[in-house]
Design a protein that fits this description.
heterodimer; A: 254 residues; mainly alpha; MetI-like fold; B: 276 residues; six-stranded mixed beta sheet; four-stranded antiparallel beta sheet; 10 strands
Chain lengths: 254, 276
Amino acid sequence: MKRWLPVLLPVVSITAAVSLWDLVVILSHTDIFPRPHEVIFAIGELISRGVLFNYIIASLFRVGVGFTLAALVGVPLGLALGWFRPALWAINPIIQILRPISPIAWIPVAILWFHVDDRAPIFLIFLASVFPITVSSVAAVQNIQPVYVRAAENFGLRGFALFRRVIFPACLPQILTSLRIAMGIAWLVVVAAEMIAVNSGLGYLIIDARNAGKRYDLVVAGMLMIGLIGLFLDFLIRQLETFDEVKWGYSQRN
Amino acid sequence: MDKKGPIIQVRSLRMDFTGKTAPIAVLENIDLEVFRGEFVCIVGPSGCGKSTLLNIVAGFFKPTSGEVLVNGTQVSGPDPHRIFVFQENGVFPWLTVEQNIGFGLDQLSAQEKAPIIQRYVDMVGLTKFEKLYPRELSGGMRQRVEIARALAANPDIIYMDEPFGALDFITRLKMRADLTRIWQEERKTILFVTHDIEESVQLADRVIILSPRPGKILRDLTIDLPRPRDLDSSAYLETRDEIFHTMGMSLRVGSDQDSPGGSTTIGSDSPSNVSL
């Protein structure tokens, strides 16, 4: 019985949530908000029109490029700032001022700089994920157990060798966690990013379905797909945390 | 290199820590010589600066005044010829047992490394555990990895800062027996800090006894007991008691029966009355 609980309980709770959704729609006599089976039909319609797959690819592409650029900038920048104290003093105020600005506030700027192509949403996704990655990488270096650095220095490691053989592997668990959180944020802003001047993607689907005839079955279908793909992305990045090189950095309760 | 002279010389060493108002003296007038192949223990009450002394000798801290020479050359920082074994375990958790033990052998090829790693894996009793990660090992086994990593780098000196402090009693006894055997095989110079008087008598050729802060050398005691050491022999017990007395402690536990109200002698101002 106990072995089945982790499978059974989610099935029960999801069934209950979907039933509740259906019940509320029926009781409210709304003819705008879709019932669950209508959303399933809407997904079927998107598949048969051949747009669902293209939209998913378009969204994943933008998030993939924006997130990868953020990781390529944020991880080295964060590690460098964490290691060189004066660099942190110089750069950190700029990061801390830019960090609280919502990516949505950058939309006018993104349109001004990049006009109407993929670069604008990619830029917004980059902005949303680069700061959490940078800040977390700084913290990763600052939280290294001093004994590892001292042992490395004792073995004569300096400069890049010290960084490659000790600093980076010591920070890797926390870096992976920050990438996971940043991936969640990047996916979260895809809708906002695709509100501007693009004509593909799950975010575009939601805006377009509402504007072009209040097709709320398609709106909810798009929302559901974003949720499911977000779950899948998190699952993928979680798999990285099971490697032996980083497993030590996570709690044993799993 | 001069084989006859001392390998480590500490000369009129003094260490102050910056306090809130005035500097706090941690170590005073430390003069010490350690000879090649010797096993020397530094004991003292907690807070006496023994760990600070080891960190200065190893080059991790700069003394306020005085100097440390190794092979006649002033120590200016840590060096691969003198490996430090840390109390809190400095084994790298992202490397396997064998990768950790080979960590200091980076200049060698894989073929050159393998037999050296195997030799020290076997010496510390970790055969068949080579591919495991530190998190899969017990505390005692992790400390074995760190000792093997130090030995594999073939240093002249090994500094050990309470390396068995976090281990349980039985594991500690076993680790001491194994460390003695390894030292007899390798004849490295070992400078070993501990607060455990019994440990120092079981391991060392010489015990340096430090006073409470500011730490000064109270006594430099040669332990002339044959190895393997018999922990029941009267010579062992006498040596142990001598260190206890030098540190101003008697070997009684608890308070005096005749003093009702349980007035304990712990914390008494007179050091000769302090009981364990």
